[in-house]
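Input (structure):
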């Protein structure tokens, strides 16, 4: 029978003696340090946690875990560990440096100053030079932001908060200050994303809830906004901004609805007054104010205040450049005011935003109106309406031709004679076109008259002689051609 093989074990006395918690903790720490070195922070964190369980009163273990949390961007937990480390060992310089760094990352300037002072006392002023520089920069940025906020310069505040967040990436206050100013600038989607991110960390953050309510208010979602403001005031009854904004929101809704009701009842002036009052409630609510300006324009049009209607539409478009209804109404106002070039510009802009057949047709009609406006208004020259009959046109021509005939003004000054000759020529042109049914039809439809039937081609003297040469007697007063009189025989 074979003898069993004996295996020699390479054991030392240390292997046979149970390891103490302190020794096991040190081994865990060393393993953690190795993982940390290779940026395996999650693995290192697990090792440091085991070391702390074994030796919960060792400051360095908390310091190492704090460093790990910092690298993972978990600054609140990092700060707790760093504070625990210096509580266990008040001479732990690295611990105070980490407290300073965490306070900076969280935007706690007071806490950062205190920790930096203690670190300087233990390790000398040079050990926190960069941290002190960061704290001073953050102080200046916050002061600059406050001045900008007081002045209503929200873009500047956003700029300052972005710079602050470069130093303090976990500063909730800087994030929400930025979000509030973004909302004030009309960038509500960006503001809501920031607020929602903050609420994922703390669902009872009143500032984040307020920002969400502010965004809903600026988006004209009254009821949802009211619920948010009410929630803020339940959590923080003295929240000044929530109280003020809630009051404004309710007043704005009231005035707007009262104006709409007056409009429905046909009380135009009352509606106009109410819309004007609503526009004074909150200048920052661009969405609602744009609608109010459009409503005001509609009322002004009802009151035949066309210029004021156009101005109200312009105000609406300054708040919302793609407001189709305001653009359409302003174009119509410009047409009524005879500002045809502006009307064409608005219809062109409208067609780019809303490419419909109707808008294309409106642009076409506006271009025809513009073309007409640049030609002589023959109806105006003769002093007749656009629906004047043939007899009306003849009577008007007879009257005007006699008034402006050059022979009547032969004794006038050179400038006066030239002016009367110009008017006489225009009267002849007008009659030559409007007395011809085909030419008049083309003229009325805005078609060119330059294809051989232009009014400018008409000789006013020929028209005059043809019109008056009917056997009737007419003699201009003395002062016709020098040394003679000018006589027509009328039938």
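Output (sequence):
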């Amino acid at each position: 029978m074979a003898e069993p093989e004996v295996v020699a074990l390479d054991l030392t006395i240390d292997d046979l003696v149970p390891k103490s918690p302190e020794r096991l903790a040190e081994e865990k720490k060393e393993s953690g340090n190795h993982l940390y070195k290779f940026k395996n922070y999650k693995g290192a964190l697990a090792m440091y946690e085991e070391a702390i369980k074994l030796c919960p009163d060792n400051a360095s273990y908390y310091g190492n875990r704090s460093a790990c949390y910092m690298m993972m961007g978990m600054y609140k937990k990092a700060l707790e560990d760093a504070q625990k480390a210096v509580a266990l060992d008040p001479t732990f310089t690295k611990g105070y440096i980490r407290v300073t760094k965490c306070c900076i990352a969280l935007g706690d300037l007071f806490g950062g100053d205190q920790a930096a002072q203690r670190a300087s006392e233990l390790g000398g002023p040079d050990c926190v030079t960069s941290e002190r520089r960061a704290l001073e920069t953050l102080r200046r940025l916050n002061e600059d932001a406050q001045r900008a906020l007081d002045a209503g310069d929200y873009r500047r505040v956003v700029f300052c908060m972005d710079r602050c967040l470069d130093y303090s990436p976990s500063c909730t206050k800087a994030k929400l200050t930025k979000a509030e100013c973004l909302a004030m600038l009309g960038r509500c989607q960006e503001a809501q994303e920031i607020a929602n991110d903050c609420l994922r960390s703390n669902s009872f953050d009143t500032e984040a809830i307020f920002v969400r309510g502010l965004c809903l208010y600026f988006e004209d979602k009254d009821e949802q906004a009211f619920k948010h403001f009410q929630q803020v005031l339940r959590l923080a009854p003295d929240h000044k901004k929530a109280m003020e904004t809630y009051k404004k929101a309710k007043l704005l809704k009231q005035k707007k609805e009262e104006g709409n009701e007056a409009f429905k009842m046909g009380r135009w002036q009352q509606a106009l007054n109410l819309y004007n009052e609503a526009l004074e409630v909150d200048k920052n609510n661009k969405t609602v104010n744009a609608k109010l300006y459009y409503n005001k324009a509609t009322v002004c049009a009802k009151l035949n205040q066309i210029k004021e209607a156009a101005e109200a539409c312009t105000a609406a478009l300054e708040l919302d450049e793609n407001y189709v209804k305001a653009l359409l109404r302003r174009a119509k106002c410009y047409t009524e005011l005879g500002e045809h070039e502006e009307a064409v510009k608005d219809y062109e802009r409208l067609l780019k935003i809303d490419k419909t057949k109707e808008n294309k047709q409106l642009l076409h009609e506006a271009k025809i109106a513009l073309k007409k406006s640049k030609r002589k208004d023959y109806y105006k020259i003769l002093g007749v309406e656009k629906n004047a009959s043939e007899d009306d046109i003849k009577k008007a021509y007879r009257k005007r031709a006699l008034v402006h005939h050059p022979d009547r003004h032969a004794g006038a000054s050179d400038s006066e004679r030239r002016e009367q000759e110009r008017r006489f020529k225009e009267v002849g042109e007008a009659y030559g076109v409007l007395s011809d049914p085909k030419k008049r039809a083309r003229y009325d439809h805005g078609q060119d008259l330059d294809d051989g039937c232009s009014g400018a081609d008409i000789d006013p003297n020929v028209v005059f002689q043809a019109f008056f040469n009917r056997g009737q007697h007419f003699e201009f007063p003395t002062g016709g051609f020098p040394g003679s009189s000018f006589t027509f025989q009328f039938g």
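Notes: The CA atoms of residues 352 and 359 lie 10 Å apart. The mean pLDDT is 90.
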